[in-house]
Amino acid sequence: MDDLQNIKTGVTKSLDLPCIIIDKSGRIIALNNEVKKIVNGALPQLNFFDLFDEQNLLTLQRIFIDARKYEIAVKDVIGLKSGNELKNYEIIFSPLKSENNIYFTVCFSGTPESKSEHETQKFIIATNEIEKIVSDKRILSVVNKVKLTYPFTFIEKAKLQKDINELDLFFWIKDPNGKFILVNDIYAKTLGFTANQLEGKNEQDYLPKYLVTLYKTVNQYIVDTSNSLVLDSSSSPITADLKKGIQIIQFPICDLDNKTVAIIGFSQESAKTIQIETKEDINKSVFKDIPIPILIIDKEYKIIFSSSEFLKIMLLPDRLDLSRTELSKYFEKGFITKVEEYLNDHSQKEPLDFTYTFEEKGNLALEVNIEKIFDEENIYDGAKIIFTPKNELQIVNESKAKLYDSLLNNMPEAMFIYDIDNLKFLEVNDSALKLYGYKRNDFLNMDLTDLYAPEDIQTLIQSSDSKTLNSGPWRHKKSDGTSILVELTRTNVDYKGKKGHLNIIKNVSDLAEEKKKNQLLQSVYDHTSDLIIITDKDGFIQTANEQISRKLGYSRKDLEARPFISLVSDDDRAKVNKNIFHSGLLKTTSLELEFKKPSGTLFKSIVIATPIKNYNGEIESYSIILKPIEEKIDNGSIKKLEDVGAEKVDAPFL
Predict the structure, then answer these.
(1) Please, which pLDDT band fits residue 611 given cuts at 50, 70 and 90?
(2) Residue 241's pLDDT is what?
(3) pTM, entire model
């Protein structure tokens, strides 16, 4: 059954971004209209990766492999042509897990074509006296340890890993070829991986495409010159959405010959951005440390404050400043609609509690509490939103329940779920209610035994205990007391915390009656004294009963696929084609024909030919019944034969 119904409708309809859902093989499951504007030829069932040129294909396959292997969101930048214009898009692969499978949303968002004057990058060739360019004493301490211990022993490396994980900005060490030697947790998490997963991997494989050339050039410069390099007033090395106004510093470690053997990289806040904190800044700083995921928004749906725990739970960079940004920038459309409905309802004064699954965050399920904020004059001034993670068991149980509910509501087959322990019905769909003739509440107050006749209940109980199910047919009772025959397909399920059986019911009453009729007709066909032949519409014999073989002297095998007209005399062949096979008549025709036996002798028979029509009313075959005409001999001829016989009898014999 298709367990993607909720995912397909939820993701493709709720996203304003161009979005595609693919399975783990790359086959497109669903897509919204926005994506068709930028990915030519995108249609369900096609392979997503067949839609791109070789250059983009390599990038897409690489990040898809990472998303599939580590089951995390992975992103990069590709260039797509629109007419003669090449436009860059950030593309994000995000995993979506169902009970038995995994799918991926692929979302496209445009990247800025040019940088504003506030995002101008400056390259500073710094002195190798690192103390002059680093403001954080913790970083200086780590750098000195690296210089003293490189290349590391296993124990030294473990100690350094602990030290760099305590830093609140990015820190990494790579070899001259760009392969990571050490990465701290915050940098690895921003890339979507753990520190261990990145070790030994090349930096260029994880940077957005538009930064690869820049960092390749920077690395080569440091290796060739053994100088440090500072990228000042730059955006983050990961994505332009992260905090601006930071410096990226790359510092060489050299051997005795002044040859670069490793490169230390780290980030720090640009000195030019350090300002005296305002009262609002202090409030933000205090608010960020509240140990719960919380947002404060104003009445224009702009974020005023956000806690650090909120950034963590929503998988956002922990130094990201959300103040004065629109709520819609970080939340999907379905959530925004829910919030707006509550806040625009002026009669609603009490807080609102609900559960929401953030599909863009890998189906992150959170309990949400929204409470309106009023000023001293009791005028609405904004809202407080608190998020509480749901435990894993809750998420799994609710996810399964939604999947089964979707299955029951969208499948045409009659289905119900019952509790294994007490046989009580837990859920039923409309098709089953229609089949059995019950109202929903009445059906859910029954148990499985109410559908069975008393004599069948013992067999039912034995079947319920068995791991395998006898599919039937079973006799079930309807609400009016009449019985139907059904075949069952049973599956073990966990439904809302209860172990149950999901049954798919197929009404086979009509099939059983049809089978009885066919058996009766087969019996008549095999044992009637009439001679019966079935041909196709062109007159070739498909089958014949045993009486035909006995009368004509042909075996049934010899008759199969033989033209019917080959059995009649030469003089009658045209009559057969004209009145039966080429007549175009849709009614029964009766003829008198002469038939040939293998010996060459002829016998006369009445032929009754009935056309058999298909569902379109077109002739599909013919049923032909032969009624032989026995020749009559007059009494005079019989007397003459008797006299001749008497004359020829030898007297001594008598």
Answers:
(1) very high
(2) 42
(3) 0.31
Residue 647 lies in a domain: no
Q: How confident is the model at residue 246 (pLDDT cuts 50, 70, 90)?
A: confident
Closest CA to 298 of 181, 382, 384, 177: 382
Domain end, chosen from 47, 82, 110, is at: 110
Q: Does residue 111 have a pLDDT over 90?
A: no
Say yes or no: 243 and 139 in one domain.
Answer: yes
**Torsions phi, psi for 207 (to 5 deg):** -85, 150
Task: Name residue 422's amino acid.
Answer: N
DSSP string, 344-396: T-TT--S-EEEEEEEGGGTSEEEEEEEEEEE-TTS-EEEEEEEEEEPPHHHHH
User: How many H-runs (helices) and E-runs (strands) does the chain carry?
Assistant: 20, 26
| Confidence at residue 403, expressed as pLDDT on a 0 to 100 scale | 64
pLDDT recorded at residue 439? 92
For residue 413, the 8-state DSSP code is: S
pLDDT score for 240: 41
Distance between CA atoms of 391 and 196, rounded to whole angstroms?
A: 27
Cβ atoms of residues 428 and 514 within 8 Å: no
Q: Is the distance from CB of 585 to CB of 577 less than 8 angstroms?
A: no
In one letter, which amino acid is 179? Answer: K
**Cα separation, 132 vs 341, whole angstroms:** 55
* Coarse DSSP helix, strand, coil percentages of the chain, rounded to the nearest 5 percent: 35, 30, 30
pLDDT for residue 73 is more than 50: yes
Handedness of CA 146, 150, 156, 158 (dihedral sign): positive
Alpha helices in 428-568 (DSSP H): 430-436, 440-444, 457-465, 509-527, 546-552, 556-559
Asked, for residue 636, whether it belongs to a domain, the answer is no
Residue 108 phi, psi (nearest 5) = -115, 135
322 and 387 belong to one structural domain: yes
